[in-house]
């Protein structure tokens, strides 16, 4: 769900005005909301990079995304490569699979997948190493295991998505999902 940009200081006034509308229609609600929107809404900050983003992230793997970024030869692509180089290779691959799989799943199946990922992540070396590097030692120099994308096996990633042992899995009924 997308909502128009309304300054938080004006939300209570907007709510009051919406609740007092006499003739509630799509048009009257829209007009009321527009009254509270700022006059100058800044544009989408990544607009100029959309062609590069679309070309780069259409890849079918994290390695493909990295290769596409290397081919771009732009400051923006270099910045993204620098950011990705600091991240856990395992986490990048898990996130990639999570986004691909989740886009095709029902609401309840997504929650089950997310639950599995949280449970498996806290057991993983990289979660603890990331906490150490950012929160404890604050050296911001994590030692990921495996250290490179190429070293992360498909079976290692599949483990994150596999059912949990025993009755530990999360089960939700699709019939209760209203979204």
TrEMBL record:
The keyword Hydrolase applies. Keywords: Hydrolase. This is 3-hydroxyisobutyryl-CoA hydrolase, mitochondrial. GO terms for biological process: L-valine catabolic process. It holds the Pfam family ECH_2. InterPro entries: ClpP/crotonase-like_dom_sf (IPR029045), ECH_dom (IPR045004), HIBYL-CoA-H (IPR032259). Its EC number is 3.1.2.4. It comes from Haemonchus placei (Barber's pole worm). Belongs to the enoyl-CoA hydratase/isomerase family. GO terms for cellular component: mitochondrion. It is an enzyme of class 3 (hydrolase). Gene3D superfamilies: 2-enoyl-CoA Hydratase, Chain A, domain 1. It catalyses: 3-hydroxy-2-methylpropanoyl-CoA + H2O = 3-hydroxy-2-methylpropanoate + CoA + H(+).
């Amino acid at each position: 769900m997308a909502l128009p940009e309304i300054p938080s200081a004006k939300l209570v006034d907007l709510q009051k005005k919406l609740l007092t509308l006499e003739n509630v229609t799509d048009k009257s609600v829209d007009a009321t909301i527009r009254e509270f929107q700022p006059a100058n809404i800044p544009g989408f900050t990544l607009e100029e990079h959309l062609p590069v983003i679309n070309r780069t992230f259409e890849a079918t793997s994290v390695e493909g995304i990295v290769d596409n970024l290397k081919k771009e030869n732009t400051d923006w692509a270099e910045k993204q490569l620098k950011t990705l180089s600091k991240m856990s290779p395992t986490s990048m691959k898990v996130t990639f699979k999570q986004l691909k799989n989740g886009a095709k799943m029902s609401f309840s199946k997504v929650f089950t997948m997310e639950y599995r990922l949280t449970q498996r992540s806290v057991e993983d070396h990289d979660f603890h190493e990331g906490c150490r590097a950012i929160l404890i030692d604050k050296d911001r120099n994590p030692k990921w295991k495996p250290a490179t994308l190429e070293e992360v096996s498909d079976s290692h990633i599949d483990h994150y998505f596999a059912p949990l042992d025993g009755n530990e899995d999360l089960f939700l009924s699709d019939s209760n999902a209203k979204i």
